Amino acid sequence: MKQSVNLPLLVMGTFCLCITSIPTAQAEFIQDAKLNILAKNYYFNRNFRKGEYNAAGLNAHLIPADRKGYREEWAQGFIVNLDSGWTETPVQFAINSYALVALKLDSDGYRTETNNLEVDSNGRPKSATSEFGAALRAKYKKTEAVLGNQFPNNPIIGTNYSRLLPSTATGLSIKDSSFDKLNLHLGYFTQMSPVDSTRRLNYFNTDYNNGIKADAVSYIGASYKQDQLESSIYLSELEDVWMQYYLAAKYKFQMNSKSDFTLQTNNYLNRDTGRAKGGKISTGVASVMGSYKRAHHNFSLAYQQVLGDEPMDWIGFGNNGGIASIPNSVQFSTFTEANEKSVQAKYEIDFAPYGLDGLSFMTRYLYGWDIDNSQSHNTFYTKRYLYDPNIDNKHWERDVELRYKVKSGFAKDLDLRLRQATHRSSKGYRYGNIDEIRLILEYPFSF
What's this model's pTM, rounded to 2 decimal places? Predict the structure, then answer.
């Protein structure tokens, strides 16, 4: 359980003491409070193929021939959010608080490390874990600031929701919507909590998880929307590691009442900065994706290319990275190795017109090639994996998702997702061959 005392909690404690003496401030603050609980049941099985094995947990003490050939965990999670109303004061205040609870239903030290459950120092998944956090919100006209524990969601530092519980970050974020069609975003974060840990860490690592650590991340960005056009630009710094630049645009062509075409591009550029604690970094990624939607069908094609001898990397939360805004970062792989080129074909269908309201299906296929970091002089990345330029390094992934969301009745809003992923690679690629199944059930409660 997280029990550290920090500045955001001290500020909120002082604030709560202050508003108790102002009846008009208390009224809306208490009466408009909302409690939301998301119950999340998660089964995860990753089966290693072609003689590969799970080296995590208690397997680390075994010879390779005796190690499990898969990872498997079944867990129950609860995400609780308690949000106050706004005070009736010139500068309005509110408090957001949360609790995250993970309960082990089935796993052991030989099947662990799916990143759904916290693992103890002996390599065994814990039976139950919890963490708590809170943030103070302040709003004046169309400007809002949040100080404390948060779930940031932007192209620079994106909360990871891919496991049982989300990652969190601690710091200050500001959003201003004073300008018509233009939003400004600023942030400064100094702590993070991984998806599979109750610890609040005083650093950020990177998605590649190669020993790079930074004391803070800061960003400034803007997003613009007018009619069918959306665009955004961000400038950020992972302290003493890199400067990261992000540029994206999305345009929707409405062809007729049943059809539209969307074209979008998402691009990052990383350059080392300050003390260059991550070594010399000069890389980026460019992508373009087109989607054609007709009635209840959606077809997409994407192309993504890494521009540099280091992989495209972004802010991480322990063993799992954040969420980068690129099309080919999917269920298992991100297709972001040095110089990698990749393509994606995707199909989605909504079965509502066929009398199956709430049922949908998605499948996609991705292929990556031309992977080569042999010209990189950055030892942080090459010590993790050095590709042989004489090998045709390539890999592919196929994902399938069947989803059903109950639209009415006693189980309304129950969300069921069955996900399957297959990944295959050449012998020289740093990730191996897996078959993966995830079954996720979510049910929200509101009070």
Answer: 0.91
